[in-house]
Amino acid sequence: MLSEQSIGIIKSTVPVLEVHGVAITKSFYGLMFEAHPELMNIFNHANQKQGRQQTALANTVYAAAVHIDNLAAIIPAVKQIAHKHRSLGVKPEHYPIVGKFLLMAIKDVLGDAATDEILEAWGEAYGVIADAFIGVEAEMYEQSQGQSGGWADFRPFRVERKVQESSVITSFYLVPQDGREIAAFQPGQYVSVKLQIPGESHTHIRQYSLSDAPGKPYYRISVKRERGNDQFPAGIVSTYLHEQIAEGDTLHLSAPAGDFVLDTADHRPVVLLSGGVGLTPMVSMLNTLAGQYPERAVTFIHAAQDGGAHALRQQVESIALGSANVTVQYCYERPTDADREAQHYHREGRIEPAWLQSVLANRDAAYYLCGPVPFMQSVKASLIKWGVPGEDIHYEFFGPKADIEAAGA
């Protein structure tokens, strides 16, 4: 338990964190990686370069300060981050390192304003928060390793099949190298893939949603090749997977993780809304709903640039044709002439509120969103404006958690 004095001091720093939070986390990562370069084997280097990891950590620290007198309020966020930590291999011994350099970063950015009293209070607070993470993650490690077919850390899998799904997305069918059982997962969960890429000094770890239904003798991930642009370079991991990994090669996987999962206790209709490669967890959910919950009406809405970029279409349509409870809608932002001729889509342009309402009709449903952040911001705002309660809207991020709340406020 934190002392009342420490709680008061932490609360007083909230305005400072709102202004200087990102500067503090940038300093933190710089200081920590300089002293402990081995931790670069855990963190996503691209997210570091793009500033996404720094922003996500700043938001987490800010939320902890705001709710320091009621840390139970941030337990859902703790569990979400803990899933990522477990899949990355974060261990209890890493927390003292993080705490040390977080306090150093606060002092580095705030200077004399970071008094001994403030640093002591934050040191005390960090200890309480770290203990919460360590406790939650210990349970997750135990569950992951102890379940049927489970394992600790990373396990070698063989690429049994490699299938090009679209102009930008390729699927990898992965079977355990030891031929033994694999762990079950919940539709919507992901695995971490760890790669040692030639010429790279550190390992790279990325999370990829499982894109097929549970219960198969393999895991399937469907990976978009990130080609980069003027702002950001091409994705080193996705490029390596697409260009260098072949059938028969080995990939090292964590056990499935993640809390963006299908709520099977909710018997209402389900709306699955995806953009681009965000359809991967949705296809897993769709498979499960069609096969095990035929009484639940399902609307599958997917937005893609055009037919060439639209992945897993045949599988989705096969499910829809064989399932009376499934309705499919495709939205192409820039359809080709071939798309128009073949009538591959239902709407041209982006998903807009009036069209969304016209295809859904009844807003009383469970909504699952996944895709680029601007896509989710727009769709969530449309749903909220229509009167869908926030608790009925579930969403997943690729990479560090971003902010889509403002769009639905």
Automatic annotation (TrEMBL):
Q: Which cofactor does it need?
A: FAD; heme b
GO biological process entries = cellular response to nitrosative stress; nitric oxide catabolic process; response to toxic substance
What sequence ranges are listed for the domain FAD-binding FR-type? 152-263
Site feature location: Involved in heme-bound ligand stabilization and O-O bond activation = Y29
A Pfam family per the record: NAD_binding_1
Reductase: annotated span: 149-409
Binding-site positions, NADP(+): G276, V277, G278, L279, T280, P281
The UniProt entry, under InterPro entries, shows: Cbr1-like_FAD-bd_dom, FAD-bd_FR_type, FNR_nucleotide-bd, Globin, Globin-like_sf, Globin/Proto, Hmp, OxRdtase_FAD/NAD-bd
Q: Which terms in the Gene Ontology molecular function aspect does this entry carry?
A: FAD binding; heme binding; metal ion binding; nitric oxide dioxygenase NAD(P)H activity; oxygen binding; oxygen carrier activity
Family annotation (NCBIfam families): PRK13289.1
Q: What is this protein called?
A: Flavohemoprotein
**Source species, please?**
Paenibacillus pinisoli
Q: Which gene encodes it?
A: hmp
